[in-house]
Write a structure and sequence with these properties.
With 640 residues, this protein is of the alpha/beta class. Helices cover 60% and strands 10% of the residues. It is built from 25 helices and nine strands.
Length: 640
Amino acid sequence: MSEEKTAKAVTETPASFADPRGRYLFILSLTALGVVYGDIGTSPLYAIRECFYGSHAIAVTRENVLGVLSLIFWSLIIVISIKYLVFILRADNRGEGGILALAALVTPVRASAQAARWLLILLGLFGAALLYGDGMITPAISVLSAVEGLEVATPFFRPYVIPLTVVIIIGLFLFQRRGTAGVGVIFGPITLVWFITLAAFGIYHIAQEPGVLTAVSPLHGLDFFLRNKLQGFLVLGAVFLVVTGGEALYADIGHFGIRPIRLTWFVLVLPALLLNYFGQGALLIATPSAAVNPFYQMLPRWSLYPMVILATAATVIASQAVISGAFSLTRQAVQLGYSPRLRIEHTSPTEIGQIYIPVINWGLMLACIGLVLGFRSSSNLAAAYGVAVTTTMVITTLLFYVVARKKWRWNALALLALCGGFLVIDLSFFGANILKITHGGWFPLVIAAIVFTIMSTWKTGRRILAERLRTSSLPMKTFIDEVEKQSPVRVPGTAIFMYSNPAGTPPALVNNLKYNKVLHERNLILTVETEEIPHVSAEDRLEVVHIKDEFYRIVAHYGFMQDPNIPEVLESLNASGLEIKLDETVFFVSRERLLATEKPGMAIWREKLFIWMSRNARGATSFFSIPADRVVELGIQIEL
C-alpha cells in the first residue's frame, strides 16, 4: 500500500504578539489595566481590615501596623513584581499563559505514562481545578465588600447589603451572554480612575503620618514575627489577600502580551496599591477604631456614596475578568481532552478570546449567590479566600522550575535557589491559609476536588475508550484488501468518516460496508488533533495521506485555543487540489453506547460518571460545525 504525503505536518506557531510601542502600547496597557488588574486592584477593600479585624486579627498598635505594612510591601515586590512579572511571565506557551498552558509546556499531554510526567500533568490539572473555586469566591467577596460601604455611610442600608449584592451578581452573570466587547472599552478608564483614587486618598493620610513609610524596611516584618510568633504567622493568611489575582497576570498574557502587563504594573498599579495600603496604615495608627473598615473610614464623608459606586464598578470589572478566565480555562480543558464537549458561543466577531459557556456561567452564578447568602459578609468570605490561590501558586512555582531546567537549561544551583526562595514564601502563605479550612476554606477545595475528578475521569475514560477501539479496530491494510476482494457497489459522492484514531479503520466505515453493502466513490478518514500549543497556523493545519485508490487519511491540527471547524477544513482541501463539494458529501459519525464493566481501567463509579458525561456532552456534529443535514450516525457498543 503506497502512501504519499501531500501536506506538511504541524509545526509550532510563533508568539502572536510583536513588541508593541507608542499609541498601540498605550491602548493595550489601558485595556490590560481593566482586565488583568481588576482582582488584585480591589484587594484594598478588605485586605488591611482582615489583618486587624478578621478571624485571626492582631492588635492595632503602631508596631503591628508597621509590621503588617512591611509584609504587604515585600509580598507585592517579591511575589508579584519579581516572581510573576519578571520570571513566570517568561514561561509563555507560544504567547499563551495560564496553568494549563504551563502544564502543556512542561510535557506533552499525550506523553508516555511515566510517573514523573504524569505527576506534573496532574499537578497542573489540580491547579486548574482550584481556579474554579477562586472564580466563585472572587465575585462574591469583591462585590459584597464594595456594597458594604453603604453601612459605613449610614446603618439604614445594613438590611439591604445582601439583597443588593445578590442583584448585582445576577445582573453580572445575565450580561455574560452579550459578551464584553461592548463595555470592554470602558473597563480600562474606570479602573484607571479607581487606581488614581486609591493613590490620592492614600497620599492624603500618609501626609498626616509620614512615619508610616519606614515600613518599607524588612526589619519591621521580622520584628512583627518575633513579637507575635504564631499569631503573626496566622496574619499571613490575611496579608496574602493583597496578592490574590497574581495568576491573572500570567493567564492573560495571550490577550495583551507581556510588555503592557509589566508596564501597567510598575507605572501605575503597584504605586497606587502601596500608597493606599500605607494610607490605611497611617489611618489606623492615628485612629485604631477605624479597623472595622479602614478603606471606607479613610474617605471624607462627602465621598462615601460616589466611592461605593466606583468600588462596585471596579469589583464588577474584577469579577468579569475572573468569569472570562473561567470560560477560557474551560475551552482549553475541552480542547486538551480534559472535559466533555460543551456549547461554546463566541460573543465577538473579531476577538476569538471572547467566549461564553452557558453551563459554566450559570454554575458560577449559583455558587456566588450561595456564598453571599451563606457567609453574609466579606469578612467571613475572606476566611475562605486564599486556600485555592496559594495552592495554585505553589504548583506554578514547581512547574516553572521544570520548564526552566528542562526546556531552557538554566543553571541548576541558581534555579534551585530562586525557586526555593519562591517556595518558602508560597508555602508560608499556604500554611497560614490552610488553617482557614474550618472557617470556610473547605469550599474551594471541595469545588477543586469535584472539578479534578471530572477532568481526570474524562481524560482517563477517553484513553480507555481509545484503547478499546484500537484493540477492536481493523487494520486499514486489511480493510483495503477486503474491499478489493469484494468489489462492492460504489455510489457517487464523498464520504467523510470522523475518527479519533489516525491509524485505524473507523467502525462507521466498516459497518457502512457490512450493512449497506456499498462504498462511496471517495472516502476520507478525518481526525482532529489538538496540539500542545495555543495556535496552529492555517498553512500547517492539514496533513493529507493518500492511502490507495480513492481512500485518504486527513489529520487536521488545531491549537488548544482554537475551535475546530470542518467546513473550513474542506475549503483548505479544495485549495490543496483535493476538491470536495459539500452538497455531495456525507459525514459518518459513530455514536458509542458505553457499558460499565469490571475490566481493568477505572472504578465502576468512575466508569458510570464517564458514561453519564458522554451522554450529555455536546454532539460532534455541532462541536465541529458539521452541517446537520449531511450527517449519518452509526451506533456501536463498547465495554469499558
